[in-house]
Write a structure and sequence with these properties.
alpha/beta; two-stranded antiparallel sheet; 11 helices; 13 strands; globular; binds zinc ion
Length: about 290
Amino acid sequence: MVNALTIDVEEYFCYAYPGDTLSCQEWAELESRVVPHTLETLKILENHRIRATFFVLGWVVEREPHLLREIHDRGHEIGSHGYGHRLVYTQQPAEFRDDVRRSVDLIGQVIGEKPVGYRAPSFSITESCLWALDILADLGFVYDASIYPTRMRHSGAPRMRTDPHRLDNGMWEFPAATVKLAGMELPFGGGGYLRLYPFLVTRWATHRINSSGRPALIYLHPWELDPYPPVAPRSRFRRFQHTVGLAKTRSRLLHLCAEFEFAAIGDVLARLHTEADGVVDFAAAK
Ligand SMILES: [Zn+2]
């Protein structure tokens, strides 16, 4: 089973938690660290011969276009993480469309092609804003990877399917990994979960859903390779979520890369659906 590995390229200060978000103007005052940690991530993937999906934030592309060019030149799949990292469910449809289109235009200017996939900031496409999926289809995206199909504190879409599937609007949805435990879908696919759980749990959960025929979607951020980020969210809970176990990220990524097979989302979807449905063209993702 080939799993999907995704990297959300943003700064350590681009967090978006309800009631605790810095503005783009405030970001501009802070020390940038995205380049070295993204290059470190690229090196790890190169050592393991893994092609991943990089969802790049438009704000970062604007400041570091050479970083996007580097990721693209190394053969990785490029997706959009929007422009300003605002939670989707706090936006009006027109604002969301403008934010995503701005990121698509920036990416196109740098690499000469449009991103095929989208990842919402903080997996913030919930059941209250599924209209976002139709806007993404309208903007030409082939797939979305923004759904956490379980109940969560400030995101999650517990009624959505847990496996990669085709949406009514023709786009594909590749949800974040969850594993069924005691009747609940337990999130484990990356971020704070990857850092907080003992690695044995991540390994067990990945094997468990792979053995049921489902690929896992694993995600992380370059800033998670930085054990001492200068700025953290203000609220105690969010600070914990954002910084717990940062010193463990690197070794956990290395363990994952050594133990499991990974590819970019477009490649995993193409493998899953080539026989079942020849209509979708993932060529742009390769
Ligand atoms: Zn993000």
